[in-house]
Amino acid sequence: MVRLPHPVRLRRRGARRRHCGTEITSRTGARRRLPRVISLRRPAALAVAVAAALAGLGLADPGTASAERPAAGRATVNDKHVIAISVDGLNPRALKRLGRTGTPNLHRIIKDEGAGTVDARTQLEMTVTLPNHTSMVTGRRIKASKGGHGVTWNDDKVTKTVQQAAGREVGSVFTGVHEAGGTTAVYATKSKFWLFERSWPKAVDKNVIEVERNGAVVKALLADLGTAPASFSFLHLGKPDQVGHHAGWMSAKYLRAVAKMDKLIGRVMAQVEATPSLRDNTVIVLTADHGGIPGTRNHTTRTHRDNYRVPFAFWGAGVTHAELYALNPDRAKPGRARPGFGAAPQPIRNGEVANASLDILGVDPLPDSLWNSAQDLDWK
């Protein structure tokens, strides 16, 4: 066994097994303390453990090491904080259906106080969770042969790193922040998000995965915001996607799930506003990985507008209240279209999270990234 250098936690509902961390919860609610170690019996755990061991010996794992090596002369992270929020499976139609009464906080972020749009786009190649989230944190498209990150799977069974999928070194918002002296944290509700720590084990300082427990990850984030907020926090809320697959997109259950996520997002906003050390230097960046077709239980048809249209917004300290395309005339509002990657100008895409977040933190864009590589997406 190899000891982890930083806090990690994974807890599933019922008696599902943890990968590692501090607690395991049984169906009866009984908890027992576990050592902070990784068992080498699991391939995914082995990948993380080997990377950590090689790093400790000063040897380069081709999947991680050079992407996390501090670069000489790189900018130092400023005193701001970024909270990137991805609402998994959020179809913007839900905001219109629920209105300000049902989604007051999402309306505050996207329409009433922040700089936002409900007409951003996913990645062109796929409209599924893990590939699009990997684009969010790397600033790359999906297709590896075109310089993308290569993550085309959407479960936790594949144990590759992003670097192995791409066939080259791939940096991330986590490595960018670390190279600039900042700290990072992930709070996610799907086990597949172990990909991030597996790929950048030295750059994800805290990794909290509470499977299907959205309230739990928000609680963990709020606790950290109140004590030691990370420079960059990534919050994944998966309830709308989970319910969409079960009951259908835009169903009554789906809309209730979106409303519940709105309340959780409101708790994060309230914490930021109530904390003097956060209020004047924190920005929320909000988007989604994909939408979902009303009346269906899937979102894999990449050419359907209900799948590829997503929100994108900034809210918080210094953010200008405006429609995001009006603030960025060099981006083209796509309407009902699905512009290709060669179109000029481009629409705003969910893959801009990484370089937009680094820009807010005063850090250079990620090398070889595609989306917002000039850090010219204006938010103030």
From TrEMBL:
Supply one GO molecular-function term. Answer: hydrolase activity
Domain of life per record: Bacteria
Q: What range does the record give for the signal peptide?
A: none
Q: Which PANTHER family match?
A: BIS(5'-ADENOSYL)-TRIPHOSPHATASE (PTHR10151:SF120), ECTONUCLEOTIDE PYROPHOSPHATASE/PHOSPHODIESTERASE (PTHR10151)
The molecule here is called Alkaline phosphatase family protein
Upper lineage ranks? Answer: Bacteria, Bacillati, Actinomycetota, Actinomycetes, Propionibacteriales
